[in-house]
Amino acid sequence: MTLRDHLNTTFHLAYPVMLSQLGQVSVGVADSMMVGRLGALPLAAASLGNSIFFVLMMFGIGISMGITPLVSMADGKGKTKRISRLFSHGLWINIATSVILTGIVLGLSQGLHFLNQPEEVVVLAVPYLLIITASLIPLMVFQTFKQMAEGLSQTRQAMFITIFANLVNVFLNWVLIWGVWGFPELGLNGAGWATLISRVLMPLMMGAYILGSQRYKKYHFKLSLPNPGLPMITRILKIGIPTGFQFIFEVSAFSTAAIMMGWIGVNALAGHQIALNLASISYMMATGLATAGMIRVSNQIGKGNMKGMREAGMVVFGMVVVFMFSCALIFVSFRYFLPTLYIDDPEVIALSASLLIIAGLFQLSDGVQVVGLGVLRGLEDVKVPTIVTLMAYWVLGLPLGYVLAFNFGMGAQGIWYGLLIGLSITAGMLLYRFHSLSKRRLLEKPTVSNFPSIP
Q1: Which of 130, 160, 316, 351 has its CA 20 to 30 A from that of 378?
Q2: How many whole angstroms separate alpha carbon 306 and alpha carbon 292?
Q3: Is 15 part of a structural domain of the chain?
């Protein structure tokens, strides 16, 4: 394939996923924008509740991503029966995961009072957290259908459904937060109910399409789990669990940063929520490129094309650098305008603007590291990247952020500079690892052991 072929193929795979991911994160963005109109206190409560919820939600999404590279590899080999079994096993793994995660959130919600947060923030955050936690099970069912379709290089369906669900969420926010058309005025909890309802719609629509479409008839997808196979469950979890921990280490670092912001004050927590909300837009769109890279890499491995695999991965790195550089320019140029979309408090806007400068600096690192995780996942290399993520954020990034914020008096900016350093180290190490592993695969002679299989 020429460079243009790689760019075209990757772009057509990536843009629906990018828009789908944008739709996913836009649920939180819309909630924050509309809740911010209620004041800094409800916005801070939303930040605290989402900080807890997103950590476990992203772990669940990581588990679900264990399906995609295996489906893509099986598709490259033309194994339709294996794809059907991967779907069934993945569905019940994801359902079981969502039930466990729901129980964990319920337990954690009772401990928010011990996180040294402002009491008035905790009182508002707990009921909101419990409402959005109910969306975990339908979200994980949707993820099963979505990851399976993406593994088959079908990425547009999830995009349309996610965008529609996001529009429903925005409409219900308006209805339930402020109580229009005779509905009760629920405030912050109204945003939680809107999120739950929109996420229930997503698996219903995606499931109806996948199970009823002629495109997928040959796979004979079933919602039951006949003859569960331990090797297949193990193979999915060997990718999914480390991927989940990768997400946990990164997302929990930002959630811990939110808790540290709460130690500084309500305005710092609200400013952090706005800047992080905006940065999450570009990050989630970059995960679309990472997904495309994972699909391309694993599919080329299934076909036995190691040269195409390496080229596909490197092209995605180049694409994400261009995209994230553009996002950095937007954040820095419009740093005083963007926070006004959330809140009209001058102190919060000024703090958010200062954090957006730092967010602009770490856009390139953020994009490279998320693509690195994606293409390495396509190689089924997940253990070392998980360790890299843990060390970069929790051994270096967060402790350094704490020291800069509280020992050197840099406040909120110090916490974000620590995260910037963690992101940059992760990006460099993951780019080098893909370069070295893909080069090794390219130089190896094809053997049975190079292309592991599952029953």
Answers
A1: 160
A2: 17
A3: yes
Q: Which structural domain, as residue segments, surrounds residue 28?
A: 3-443
Residue 281 contacts residue 305 (beta carbons within 8 Å):
no
Express each pLDDT in 136-164 by its tens digit.
Answer: 999 999 999 998 888 888 878 888 888 88
- Tokens encoding 300: 């080329």
Could you report the per-residue pLDDT of 349-396, keeping only the tens digit for each? 888 888 898 888 888 888 999 899 989 988 888 889 999 988 888 888
* Angle of helix 363-378 versus helix 306-333 axis, rounded to 10: 160
Query: Which residues lie below 8 Å from residue 130, measured CB to CB, with a gap of 6+?
Result: 105, 106, 109
Closest CA to 94 of 158, 138, 153, 155: 138
Q: How far apart are CA 206 and CA 146, in angstroms?
A: 8
Best CA proximity match to 131, nearest among 161, 82, 172: 172
- The rounded distance, in Å, linking the Cα atoms of 55 and 108 is 12
The answer to whether residue 453 is domain-embedded is: no
Q: Looking at 334-382, list the stretches that DSSP marks H as alpha helix, in order from N- to C-terminal side.
A: 346-361, 363-378
454 lies in some domain: no
Q: Which amino acid is at 121?
A: V
Q: Where are the beta strands (DSSP E) in 127-185?
A: none
- Contact of 47 with 272, CB cutoff 8 Å: yes
Query: pTM surpassing 0.90?
Result: no
CB 163, CB 23: distance < 8 Å = yes
Tally of domains in the chain = 1
**What tokens does 196 get?**
């739950």
